[in-house]
């Protein structure tokens, strides 16, 4: 069923997923620390995972502040909500696999299965992020105008 009315569960869910992502980012800090000390490989991958998941968690927590107000009356708000969540976790999964395997995932034609998987995680996340960003801008212009 499509979400049309105010739903505080969405705000709390965004907060929950923000804190889960924050926890993943904090654990990634352990990997980053070990990679700095040369105990494990791929320092740049662990640094990216650590910093980007912390930023992603802050983004989700920030969205929780305005999501319901901005999307009230928008008949596809549930889909928008899931696009935000799925995009975040696709970025996290891609960065985690990249840190563990040293795959970069920057080109779908790059050799290696892990590179292709990382690429597709990033691709899905980027498409969803682009879509929800445009929708948020559209909703903001409706509220302002």
Structure report:
- The chain has 145 residues and is mainly α.
- It has one domain (8-144).
- Helix content is 79%, strand content 0%.
- It has helices spanning 8-36, 43-71, 77-101, 113-144.
- Helix 1 (8-36) runs antiparallel to helix 2 (43-71), helix 1 (8-36) runs parallel beside helix 3 (77-101) and helix 2 runs antiparallel to helix 3 (77-101).
- InterPro entries: SOI/HabA-like (IPR058965).
- The chain crosses the membrane at residues 12-33, 45-67, 79-100, 120-140.
- Keywords: Membrane, Transmembrane, Transmembrane helix.
Brief rundown of the structure:
With 145 residues, the protein is mostly helical.
Task: Round the Cα radius of gyration to an integer and report it.
Answer: 17 Å
Major pleated sheet: none
Helix percentage range: over 70%
Number of helical elements? 4
Strand content: under 5%
């Amino acid at each position: 069923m499509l979400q049309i009315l105010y739903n505080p569960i969405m705000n709390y869910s965004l907060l929950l997923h923000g804190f889960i992502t924050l926890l993943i980012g904090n654990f990634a800090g352990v990997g980053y620390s070990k990679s700095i000390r040369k105990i494990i490989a791929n320092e740049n991958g662990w640094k990216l995972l650590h910093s980007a998941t912390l930023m992603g968690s802050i983004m989700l927590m920030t969205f929780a502040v305005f999501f319901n107000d901005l999307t009230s009356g928008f008949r596809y708000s549930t889909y928008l909500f899931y696009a935000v969540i799925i995009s975040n976790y696709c970025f996290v999964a891609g960065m985690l696999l990249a840190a563990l395997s040293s795959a970069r995932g920057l080109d779908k034609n790059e050799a290696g299965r892990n590179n292709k998987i990382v690429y597709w995680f990033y691709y899905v996340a980027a498409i969803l992020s682009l879509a929800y960003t445009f929708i948020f801008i559209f909703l903001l212009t409706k509220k302002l105008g």
